[in-house]
Amino acid sequence: QVQLVESGGGSVQAGGSLKLACAASGYIYSRRGMGWYRQAPGKERELVSLINSDDTTTYADSVKGRFTISQDNAKNIIYLQMNNLTIEDTAVYYCAALGCRLWIRDFSPRDYWGQGTQVTVFS
After folding, report:
1. Rounded distance, CA 90 to CA 88, Å?
2. How far apart are CA 35 and CA 71, in angstroms?
């Protein structure tokens, strides 16, 4: 069974930094990529950043130049380094493993989600 566990959230003053980590357990035959999403109170969940199996990355415009996503494939962990945080970055951050196939003849790829980790930025 695939499980994603996030860590690294917390409270930080505006301008500070945090580094989130997401560890995936359970066997995944292949996946399209992994990423971070966030949901602020009263808002819809939004994409923060994605990293594909070929290490190509995508960032939301609001975090470009401040956040960096990376992965350690050997350990099945992805990271999100968040610098120069602003109050608008306050949200629950969710890790996702996207388009996962659990075996070679798995023709129904699915997404898996972590439980979320709170990031609070204060002034």
Report:
1. 5
2. 10
pLDDT per position as a tens digit, 10-58: 999 999 999 999 999 998 899 899 999 999 999 999 999 999 988 899 9
Task: Report the chain's mean pLDDT, rounded to a whole number.
Answer: 95
Contact 108, 35 (CB under 8 A): no
Amino acid at 28: I
Q: What is the dihedral of CA 52, 47, 39, 107, to 10 degrees?
A: -50
Three-state SS sequence of the chain = CCEEEEECCEEEECCCCEEEEEEEECCCCECCEEEEEEECCCCCCEEEEEEECCCCEEECCCCCCCEEEEEECCCCEEEEEECCCCHHHCEEEEEEEEEEECCCCCCCCEEEECCCEEEEEEC
d(CA 29, CA 37): 23
Do β-strands 91-100 and 77-82 pair in parallel, antiparallel, or remain unpaired?
A: unpaired
d(CA 15, CA 23) in angstroms, rounded, equals: 26
